[in-house]
Amino acid sequence: MSYTPSALGQVSALPASPAAAVLDFPPNPRPGALYLVRFTCPEFTSLCPVTGQPDFAHLVIDYAPAATIVESKSLKLFLAAFRNHAAFHEDCTVGIGQRLVGEMAPRWLRIGGYWYPRGGIPIDVFWQSGPPPEGLWLPDQGVPGYRGRG
Amino acid sequence: MSYTPSALGQVSALPASPAAAVLDFPPNPRPGALYLVRFTCPEFTSLCPVTGQPDFAHLVIDYAPAATIVESKSLKLFLAAFRNHAAFHEDCTVGIGQRLVGEMAPRWLRIGGYWYPRGGIPIDVFWQSGPPPEGLWLPDQGVPGYRGRG
Amino acid sequence: MSYTPSALGQVSALPASPAAAVLDFPPNPRPGALYLVRFTCPEFTSLCPVTGQPDFAHLVIDYAPAATIVESKSLKLFLAAFRNHAAFHEDCTVGIGQRLVGEMAPRWLRIGGYWYPRGGIPIDVFWQSGPPPEGLWLPDQGVPGYRGRG
Amino acid sequence: MSYTPSALGQVSALPASPAAAVLDFPPNPRPGALYLVRFTCPEFTSLCPVTGQPDFAHLVIDYAPAATIVESKSLKLFLAAFRNHAAFHEDCTVGIGQRLVGEMAPRWLRIGGYWYPRGGIPIDVFWQSGPPPEGLWLPDQGVPGYRGRG
Amino acid sequence: MSYTPSALGQVSALPASPAAAVLDFPPNPRPGALYLVRFTCPEFTSLCPVTGQPDFAHLVIDYAPAATIVESKSLKLFLAAFRNHAAFHEDCTVGIGQRLVGEMAPRWLRIGGYWYPRGGIPIDVFWQSGPPPEGLWLPDQGVPGYRGRG
Amino acid sequence: MSYTPSALGQVSALPASPAAAVLDFPPNPRPGALYLVRFTCPEFTSLCPVTGQPDFAHLVIDYAPAATIVESKSLKLFLAAFRNHAAFHEDCTVGIGQRLVGEMAPRWLRIGGYWYPRGGIPIDVFWQSGPPPEGLWLPDQGVPGYRGRG
Amino acid sequence: MSYTPSALGQVSALPASPAAAVLDFPPNPRPGALYLVRFTCPEFTSLCPVTGQPDFAHLVIDYAPAATIVESKSLKLFLAAFRNHAAFHEDCTVGIGQRLVGEMAPRWLRIGGYWYPRGGIPIDVFWQSGPPPEGLWLPDQGVPGYRGRG
Amino acid sequence: MSYTPSALGQVSALPASPAAAVLDFPPNPRPGALYLVRFTCPEFTSLCPVTGQPDFAHLVIDYAPAATIVESKSLKLFLAAFRNHAAFHEDCTVGIGQRLVGEMAPRWLRIGGYWYPRGGIPIDVFWQSGPPPEGLWLPDQGVPGYRGRG
Amino acid sequence: MSYTPSALGQVSALPASPAAAVLDFPPNPRPGALYLVRFTCPEFTSLCPVTGQPDFAHLVIDYAPAATIVESKSLKLFLAAFRNHAAFHEDCTVGIGQRLVGEMAPRWLRIGGYWYPRGGIPIDVFWQSGPPPEGLWLPDQGVPGYRGRG
Amino acid sequence: MSYTPSALGQVSALPASPAAAVLDFPPNPRPGALYLVRFTCPEFTSLCPVTGQPDFAHLVIDYAPAATIVESKSLKLFLAAFRNHAAFHEDCTVGIGQRLVGEMAPRWLRIGGYWYPRGGIPIDVFWQSGPPPEGLWLPDQGVPGYRGRG
Ligand SMILES: [Ca+2]
Ligand SMILES: [Ca+2]
Ligand SMILES: [Ca+2]
Ligand SMILES: [Ca+2]
Ligand SMILES: [Ca+2]
Ligand SMILES: [Ca+2]
Ligand SMILES: [Ca+2]
Ligand SMILES: [Ca+2]
Ligand SMILES: [Ca+2]
Ligand SMILES: [Ca+2]
Ligand SMILES: [Ca+2]
Ligand SMILES: [Ca+2]
Ligand SMILES: [Ca+2]
Ligand SMILES: [Ca+2]
Ligand SMILES: [Ca+2]
Ligand SMILES: [Ca+2]
């Protein structure tokens, strides 16, 4: 393993903001293969920019690696750094996807943000970096819809 | 059938308020038997007494008939009459149960109110008229809990 | 097998009414054992006594045999005979249970009738012949509640 | 945030009719991105134009924003304004979609209306503004079918 | 509403046969829109042409309206009229679809018939009037497969 | 009905082997229509050719009829005849499909075999006679995956 | 391990009948503890004593060991030996329980037989050797009910 | 309504700590009735006292009111105030229950804390203030267990 | 926190055997309260004592703390230490429960072991240290039964 | 059967490493058919290359055979040999697929690895050997997403 992890195998502090979080990108261990990596992140919280109240979401990130992969503990810390960050649901979700694309330069990436209901109505946000590569196997994310009660 | 239905088999108008609704109580067709009748009412809506906004609930009513049963179309109209009525969740739920007990005088009755979330937190309300009669078969209502997203 | 089946192993006509149906009661093959037999009957239909429209139900019958058991093909024909019979949900459900008890004389019997919604509200009816015998293993019927949509 | 919300962060009254409701359209915070926003609205009710009785539905709205997004609290108030509005299921569902398209001018929009059963038969209505944009990630809505009982 | 309903808003008798049933076709309230209407009909029963025994099915009908829609109460009565009609599963299912197409002349229609098991094996039948129109949003019917027990 | 059934409406013996089983092919009652028939067969068992132990499977067969359909009771007897037949999972599953295609000459056929786990690992086998006909409506079979425990 | 297994760790032939099957009873490895062992056996098949046709069942066996436990491979072979045995559902289910009690002499045992439907109606059979021992932890078997279709 | 809400119907700031949060207790609207109120709170997060990392939980609170009820918006703000509070799972869960009992003095209260997995193992915590009152209807909380994957 | 953790907040090696694993018992943070702690452990594997092949299980442990609680990272390492340990299912499951009781001396403890199928038949093992304390709230573990396929 | 199995029908030892495991490839019993074989492997465990801790996964392998098939007991032993092998999730999953392709030379193969969560975030890995062959029937794997709790 030719990279030095900033977080994995250590005890790590929570970054102060998304901007302060450091993402680690070890070399792709199967660089010749076209494959998909999916992260499921049910522990996401940020703040509402209008009311200051906490928001919660379940996030699912899919990507096809190019030269590197993203190390999951550094990803966890990056996501945890939204804890005191205020932004709209659409902005957070698409922004996480765009930052990962900007730093990792994968072949392709998408993110689904499944937000908890406010006012009885949840919002889901779906973004991808472009059309998926030909030949990539891409199962759907399968997060169940919100159903209210009963 | 020795009673005159006020609603069943006819086209009926929506009552103006819960107080204005008429409940029909035909004779119990199996008066010697101790049995349970369950109504499941997923189409309930009322108003919040503080904000005036609509509230929604899924109601389940269980009762053991004595001399009469409640006719289901008149029950439907009674529940539909909460549409413009403003009251707390606890008040609506327990109040529906108490009115049915007061007019029908069943051996026993309970009501479960499963309210849609507000502020991310749903409220459920459970009331019964007393301990269930000995020997009554009483399955649980089995309404699934609220789970947010993911 | 010391009894002559009226239906099993033969091609049988539909009885004209519940009263015309013949139930077969072969000897209990394990007469010394206290055990439960459950029939699940999702194919039940009768007529509404007020409107003449078809009603549908899912029935579950549980009983503990005494000297005889009820043969399932004759039971099927008995239930199918409600096809042109008009009665309230409460009446049909409790009546089926009472007829089986009257003819078979089991140690104990119960019936759950889970009726399809009318006016947005389904009715379930639960009856048993008395408290269940001590020592009988009696799982709950586990039919899911009605949930509307979503 | 360069727009003045008419509802978010405030206490708001229920609009008297769909026509009286005001929808807010803040600027799209990620205007360069092709993405999907999904609203799930399990708290919808209107009136039957023939009988005057309440109808209930679970709605799911999907759209790809262009210059603006729709603010969710104003959407909630618009939908709540159908409470005293009488129209067929097909008319309500398609009409909500057409109004949103007319005022917001998104790249694309669709609406699924999943109505509670009447007479034992629910109606679902599915409309979209045109073929979805190339490259948009569009998960299916996944609302379960109606199953009656059992 | 420029049509006179034969059934909706009234108390109606059950037609004597499918051929005797009258289907109502009010004008399409959104004639310019390409959209899908789905009816879910879990209350279907007919007779076996060989044995005379009752058969049961869960039907789902999808169509894209042209000039008219089908009124749901008249559809309910048409389907209920199969109660004393004897035909194979394949014949009933495809026949219902063909009659609706013949009388309503929709842009497109399909029907799925999900029949209850006989001899341990259920039959499902799937028919459509032709390839679905381009641009129509057509979710799958999602009826779960039969699983036996366990 | 112009064919003479070998099994339906009669009491039938179990065939001694798959080769000894007779399949009945009545005329297609809707010969002009392109439609799909699905059989779900959760009661399948054969023997392992290496160890002689019983194997179990859940089978789902889909086909588009040409001149004939397969009668379901004769299909049931054919499948039951594998009870004492020894073959690999891949061989049984594809072989059943090939025999049906050979004798019935449908427009198209596929079979999914979902085998119970051995050594902790179940095998599923999926075969079709060729690409499905254009315009055939073909829902997926939707059999859930094996999940071990928990 | 002080016993010689007749089947475990070896390749074994299928016994010719239930009577010919040998059950192994190794010493209870935790003889001082009151605990429950549950076997879930979804691969059970026997023959109908009237028609000779195959029957299928999902069995669940619970017992509290005394001096011995039953070895699972020998249990599997015993159950597989019903493959050519003809008996009623009630007889098979209770009989398996009684044989295990007779040979193993556990503190307590129960068996649930969940049979696949015949004529549209499945039968479940529930038997126990007596009231469960005080202090035994005994979860319910939780096998879902039969639901037909839809 | 004789109390002045501190939060409901207003825009509120997030309290700095659990100790700083103010809970509102309006009068019980049905003081003569023995009933249960359930809050489901899937949006809970706190910090690990050893590592400082965020923890997440799904909480369910059940209580039987005496003189007062707890207002749900003030409850939401109290729970949101754990966002920057560090404590063990056992401590948080039982502590929330004890604070509510101390300030509200209900007839009875219980809390279930269902924590997200750490190290592959989630912890659930269940506490109640004492045995539930006789005659209270108390459904189980029904939160599904953790199952890993597959 | 008055105890020194042997594992939490550190990087730890896998113990060589269950006997070599060290369990940590910090003081109970809510010593006056009678409450339940549940660990769900879906990542368990050991070896078969007869064949040497790997076995897998899903474990659920419930206990009511007395003076101490068990720290979850040390519990994880203890369970992981069964990776190269050979024992029967009954022995492993009851043995884990007995070791925890012996070292922690809780008020009460139970363990459920849900083992993956071998030979088509999974084994579940349920043990508890004695009758649960009066007044303890003890939800059932709710692990679904094994169902084979289909 | 013209091949000599190395494992099936025998008692086999666990290979010391993936490299040491021998995979058996009997001749394809249906060589003219284009079909899919799916293996579901919920019993997979390996070691983390950074921390040395055990990892767990649920694997699903799909392939279309050419001249040979892979024998399932030898596959089981190969997968079990990862028990003491240390590698990243991405590496293990893609590597298993590549080894099977290299030795068996199927027409096509894919593997889905569904890993248990670490740090609250599970990783799924999806790889295929190229675009699936035209005309192959390829159902999706349908493994449910991770949902945290609640
Ligand atoms: Ca809300
Ligand atoms: Ca959640
Ligand atoms: Ca209805
Ligand atoms: Ca139960
Ligand atoms: Ca609903
Ligand atoms: Ca209805
Ligand atoms: Ca899909
Ligand atoms: Ca049904
Ligand atoms: Ca197995
Ligand atoms: Ca699909
Ligand atoms: Ca698992
Ligand atoms: Ca059947
Ligand atoms: Ca974890
Ligand atoms: Ca329960
Ligand atoms: Ca329970
Ligand atoms: Ca099965």
Automatic annotation (TrEMBL), chains A, B, C, D, E, F, G, H, I, J:
Molecular function per GO: preQ1 synthase activity
Keyword Metal-binding: no
PANTHER family reported for this sequence: NADPH-DEPENDENT 7-CYANO-7-DEAZAGUANINE REDUCTASE (PTHR34354)
Species this protein is from: Sandaracinobacteroides saxicola
Primary localization class, coarse: cytoplasm
Name listed for the protein in its UniProt record: NADPH-dependent 7-cyano-7-deazaguanine reductase
Organismal lineage: Bacteria, Pseudomonadati, Pseudomonadota, Alphaproteobacteria, Sphingomonadales
InterPro entries in the cross-refs: GTP-CH-I_C/QueF, NADPH_dep_7-cyano-7-deazaG_red, QueF, QueF_type1
The protein's enzyme class: oxidoreductase
Claim: DNA-binding is one of the keywords in the record: no
Binding positions (substrate): 70-72, 89-90
Catalyzed reactions per annotation: 7-aminomethyl-7-carbaguanine + 2 NADP(+) = 7-cyano-7-carbaguanine + 2 NADPH + 3 H(+)
Role summary: Catalyzes the NADPH-dependent reduction of 7-cyano-7-deazaguanine (preQ0) to 7-aminomethyl-7-deazaguanine (preQ1).
NCBIfam families noted in UniProt: QueF-II (TIGR03139)
Family: Belongs to the GTP cyclohydrolase I family. QueF type 1 subfamily.
Record gene name: queF
Subcellular location: Cytoplasm
GO biological processes: tRNA queuosine(34) biosynthetic process
Entries under Pfam families matching the protein: QueF (PF14489)
Active-site residues, as the UniProt record annotates them: 48, 55
EC number of this enzyme: 1.7.1.13
SUPFAM superfamilies xref list: Tetrahydrobiopterin biosynthesis enzymes-like
GO cellular component: a single term: cytoplasm
